[in-house]
Amino acid sequence: MDVQSWDDLRIFLSVARHDTLSGAGRALRMDPATVGRRVARLEESLGQALFVKGPQGYTLTEAGTRLIDHAERAEQAMQGAQSVLTGEAGTLTGQIRIGAPDGCANFVLPRVFADLSKANPDLDLQIVALPRVVNLSRREADMAITVSPPTASRLSYQRITDYKLHLAASKTYLSTRPPLTSVADLRDHRIVGYIPDMIFDKELDYLSDLGLDRVALASNSASVQVHLLRHHGGIGIAHDFALPFAPGVTRVLTDALSFTRSFYLVRHAEDRRLDRITRFAAALVQGVRAEVARLESLLSNT
Fold first, then answer.
1. How far apart are CA 292 and CA 282, in angstroms?
2. Domain range for 271
3. Which of 66, 133, 142, 199 ranks highest by number of CB atoms within 10 Å?
4. Residue 3's pLDDT is what?
């Protein structure tokens, strides 16, 4: 494949992943009109339409869907070649985007990414914090941290670390409410938690087994829930690693109720051949493990 052919495929992939010329243009740092012309040129050279433009943006045709796999293999090959040419040793360069649940993104990744950035000054790091699973097939990110292993066969994963969650509330809230001596007493308290119909992973459904049929203060964001606890909103399940960022919030009923969940690092199976991505993944896993352990250790005596 010549360089020009790859460049056309690169633009095709960006439009397929962003659905719009403007979105693809921002990602590619190109004018949307130029993106449109390049897509039209590729379609003309192939003699087939690759997209249908509709109210929701650009949708792949059958021919475009068939081309995706070939284009992604070409992308992998070009990235592999770049890795070889830039050398396997030394610091990392370029741009890497990580998708993560917002709790991990807000409380764990900032310190990890700051350290990685200091160690690799020519590396641009991006965190996509979403209260849902990041779509790697659409290349919303280069890799993702999830709370469940993926089911898609084209994705590979590794478990990063376990983390713990407990009931928590502010000391001010607890001082003004009925005593909390057992899980049954939760019925006398305002519950903070996820919006029930927006729980995107079964591993986040902490309250269903507690017989609680009402969540008085709800959000699809774990970090928002922590702030609700900080402002004396009620009692809820919180990550232990988040509580050092919530002064005045304390764990309760730790002997009666505790959850353990895991973080997984997910990426395309083909990416394992890319030394740059593999080295970054190893550093990320090590950093997340260390940061979760550090933050949880701050609560070991509380």
1. 16
2. 94-160+262-297
3. 142
4. 41
The amino acid at 226: V
Q: How do residues 233-285 score in pLDDT, each as one tens digit?
A: 999 999 999 999 999 999 999 999 999 999 999 987 766 656 778 888 999 99
Q: Is residue 302 part of a domain?
A: no
Q: Do 10 and 145 belong to one domain? A: no
**Which tokens is 257 given?**
């109720």
Cβ atoms of residues 190 and 233 within 8 Å? yes
Which pTM value belongs to this model?
0.72
Q: What percent of the chain has pLDDT over 90?
A: 45
Residues 245 and 152: their CA atoms lie apart, in Å, by 35
Instruction: Mark whether 191 and 242 lie in a shared domain.
Output: yes
Task: Tell me what percent of the residues of the chain surpass a pLDDT of 70.
Answer: 86
The contacts found for 209-216 with CB under 8 angstroms, 24 or more apart, are 210/183, 210/186, 210/257, 212/186, 212/187, 215/191, 216/190, 216/191, 216/192
